[in-house]
Each structure stands twice: as structure tokens, then as C-alpha cells.
Amino acid sequence: MKKTILTLAAAIGLFACQSQKSKVSETETSKNMEISNKEKVVALLTSLETGDQKPVSYINPNKYIQHNLAVEDGLAGFGKVIANAPEGGFKANVVRAFQDGDFVVTHTEYDFFGPQIGFDIFRFEDGLIVEHWDNLQEVAVETASGRSQTDGPTKIKDLNKTAANKELIKGFVKDVLMGENPAKVTDYISTESYAQHNPAVADGLEGLGAAIQGMADAGTPMVYTKNHFLFGEGDFVFTASEGQFLGKLTAFYDLFRIEDGKIVEHWDTVEEIPAKETWANQNGKF
Questions:
Q1: How confident is the model at residue 1 (pLDDT cuts 50, 70, 90)?
Q2: Quick one: how far is CA 147 from the chain centroid?
């Protein structure tokens, strides 16, 4: 495994060096457009484990804006991460992936210097990846609901309801998560079935209410202050927001599944945003 990771790192380095001399060829760009952007992203993440060199070509070598604040900007920064893989290499199992315009969102089980759950966002231009955001959280040994952080439906359905479902979550973020009208929670979340994958929250509205009350009683409320992204495909809608948790600046990535106009399932990752002086790039978390 270590050998395949080093081979991939070498391929990234070679690809990056060659790109300084010339732009991506029209032939290569044409080949990259033969598969969907979603498929390119899945192949790229899977290559972290397999060492496959081909998916590196899905990244624009002349423009790759990195928002993981622990990783240097550009393709060279991505290559450094690969080159410093731990013994045994990385693991990456993409559980869910969906596409909204030029953006692809993935929900992945990683072993990336330890088991983690990650949401990644990739932005494309002309068939190539030009920007990346992510949010990572350690895998929980036990969860309040008994569910894992990734299990549940993965197949996308109700494509004709994408716009309506995105509008529903837009309202939920404004009214409930950002606190403009929290009493409207039952307008958004199903009162009959609500499966929860946040490790600290039990299923159902009662579980959500108990978790919110518990945080308030402890003086550590979870506060959403700004929504940065809202993407959806069919019955899945994803949001990326910032706020405060445990008194620290925090990024909240949330994924919702909608049935018959109500939220019936929720997955998330919560990650502290580090102090600016520690950042490996200056692009910001969002």
C-alpha cells in the first residue's frame, strides 16, 4: 500500500511540474468530460486508497483552491498530503455522492490519520476540479440513536422535487437552525419518522429537543450564524454553515433526506475552525 501511495504522490508531483509549462491539453480536457463530475470525484477519493494515478488528471493543475486549512494550496499541497501517508496508507469509502450544477458533494468514511467521517465539496470548471472544501469529524464509538454516522439510504430519488426540497431546507436553516422562528420546527421535520446520525442526538423530534435543551442547560448552545452553501439532488439536500459550538468558531456540514415535504433523516459533521495563524493556506474555511 505504501508503494502505491508513493507512486500516486510521484504522479501528482510530475503532473504539477508539467503543468507549469503548459495548460491542460484540449485532448485531455475532452477525455475528462466523458464521465460525470460526480464519477470523477468518487474516482479521485477512491484513488487515495488504491493509488490509481488517472484521477489526478481530474484536478486543474494550474488552479486548485484549497479550503482544508491544514493543506497547502494547489495541486502541490494535495501531493504533499499523499506523500506523507501513514504506514498502510489511507482508506476512503464514498458512501454518498450527488451533484448540483458545477458542485459535487460526497459523504465519505476515511481512515486518514485515524477513522473519520468527512463531507467534501468540489467545484468544477470546464470539466476539471478547481476548488475543494471539507469538514471532518472523528468516528464515534457509540451513538445516542444506535445508528452509525453514515448508514441509511444512499440512492437518490425524487429528482423532480430537487428545487422544492432545497427551498424546504433553505427555510429550515433560516427559521430553525439560525433561530428566526424555531417554533416552526414541525413545518420542516417529520413528527412521525426522523432518523438521526449525529452521535449525540437520539432519533425523533424528542431526541432533538432533548439534545438542544441539554446544551442550553450546560451553557454550550450550538449556534448557527451564517449559511455558506446549499446544494441538493433529489431527496438529498446539503448545507455548509458556520457558527459557535462549545464557545469556539465552528463549521457545520449537514445532510438532510426529505420525504413528502418533510425532513426524515439527518447526517452531519462538526469541526472547529482553527486560528488563522495556524492555516496552511489563506483561502479560509469557506
A1: low
A2: 19
Cα dist. 145→154, 220, 237, 244, 272 in Å?
19, 21, 21, 24, 23
Query: HSE (CB half, 13 Å, CA atoms) of 227?
Result: 17
Which of 251, 285, 270 is CA-nearest to residue 132? 285
Closest CA to 101 of 133, 128, 129, 123: 123
> Sheet of 128-138: strands edge to edge?
65-66, 128-138, 115-125, 103-111, 91-100
pLDDT in tens, 58-90: 999 999 999 999 999 999 999 999 888 888 889
Alpha-carbon distance 276 to 4, whole Å? 34
pLDDT of amino acid 21: 45
Tell me the average pLDDT across 182-204: 96
**Location of each CATH 3.10.450.50 domain in the chain:** 2-139, 159-276
Helices 2-19, 37-50: crossing angle, 10 deg rounding: 130
Mean pLDDT value across residues 189-196: 97
Q: Return the amino acid letter for 3.
A: K
Classify burial at 248, counting beta carbons within 10 Å of its beta carbon; exposed 0-12, middle 13-18, buried 19 or more: exposed
Phi-psi bin for 223: left (phi > 0), alpha (psi -120 to 50), beta? beta
Instruction: Average the pLDDT over each of 30-39, 86-95, 244-253, 275-284 and give the range with the smallest value.
Output: 30-39
Domain covering 159-276: architecture:
Roll (3.10)
CATH (one of 3.30.360.10, 3.20.20.370, 3.10.450.50, 3.40.720.10) for 2-139? 3.10.450.50
CA nearest neighbour of 1 among 105, 124, 92: 92
CA 168, 174, 179, 180 dihedral sign is negative
Which of 30-39, 101-110, 234-243 is predicted least confidently? 30-39
